[in-house]
Amino acid sequence: MHPALSIIVFTTLSGAGYGLLFVVGLAVPAGLIAPSPGLGIAVMGVGLVLVVGGLVSSTFHLGHPERAWRALSQWRSSWLSREGVMALVTFVPTLLFAYGWLAHGAVDGPWGVIGVVMSLMAVGTLWSTAMIYCSLKTIARWHSAWTPAIFLSAALATGTLVLTLIVSAAGSDWAAIDVFKIVTVIALLLAGLIRVEGWRSLDRKAPESSAGSATGLGKLGRVRALEPPHTAPNYVQREMGFQIARKHADKLRRLTVVLAYAIPFVLVLLSLILPPVLDIIACLLAVASGYAGVLMERWLFFAEATHKVTLYYGAEAA
Questions:
Q1: Where in the sequence is the domain holding 275, given as residue range(s)?
Q2: pLDDT surpassing 90 at residue 313
Q3: Report field, pTM of the whole predicted structure over 0.85
Q4: Does 104 reside within a domain?
Q5: Is 318 inside a domain boundary?
Q6: Which CATH number characterizes residue 116's domain?
Q7: In total, how many domains does the chain have?
Q8: Three-state SS across the chain?
Q9: Which among 131, 210, 275, 313 is least buried, having the fewest CB atoms inside 10 angstroms?
């Protein structure tokens, strides 16, 4: 599949934002984050900016962005529509929780329940995004339980990275900061393991279709195209037939693991023993490296996917 920059930015930015909101909705009512107004503005502000920035980026992939609202009506059958509905509905508990925190300093009782609802809605939105791709039976690499696992774990890792940076910069409660760093390390380790094992599992998976099965001529022997169906590449070939060489994919996979998971893992661990100023710098570098790595991982997610329609354009298996 052709990696569209707008969708890559959308899934990674909004993923980090929803991951941050998920952790905040559980950590603040549990008393792990002091409900100070300044910290609330920073945490909720960054979370909303990431979510809104991602959602706005997604509209650039549409041929007619002004018609995007029509997709919301198909929520009964379309995961894309469900994602849009979930994204909009999630703003309700998010803004209510922010209001309770900032206007009244209240994060427990009913306001705490709203925070938990915000967390659940954030997970629901991330799940809907992942299911857009997981539900496509025509793309074997996406039609797998690994897809939602990869999306959710990457969102948790990047979200906790951003939250750890914010809480470290606030520096009000060092015990809580250490807790967040430990949670971040665990999230990075979990996301890295899921991503690597996902690659290994999908690489071992045999192709579901071939040129023979797609044309119904497989029983007669090996099937191959004698001539291309078009004299010039068309839209289907450009969007569905993007290919990346195996050796390049392997290099990018290794670089992804290093940038997205290994470097942030080490930096966050080091920040546990560094003095305050160096601690913040380490967390900032961890966020920068982690997001760069997740961008690369999401580019590979699209670039390595093969649509079954390519079987009619010369591909032997998909």
A1: 5-313
A2: no
A3: yes
A4: yes
A5: no
A6: 1.20.1630
A7: 1
A8: CCCCHHHHHHHHHHHHHHHHHHHHHHHCCCCCCCCCHHHHHHHHHHHHHHHHHHHHHHHCCCCCHHHHHHHHHHCCCCHHHHHHHHHHHHHHHHHHHHHHHHHHCCCCCHHHHHHHHHHHHHHHHHHHHHHHHHCCCCECCCCCCHHHHHHHHHHHHHHHHHHHHHHHHHCCCHHHHHHHHHHHHHHHHHHHHHHHHHHHHHHHCCCCCEHHHHHCCHHHCCCCCCCCCCCCCCHHHHHHCCCCCHHHHHHHHHHHHHHHHHHHHHHHHHHCCCCHHHHHHHHHHHHHHHHHHHHHHHHHHHHCCCEHHHHHHCCCEC
A9: 275
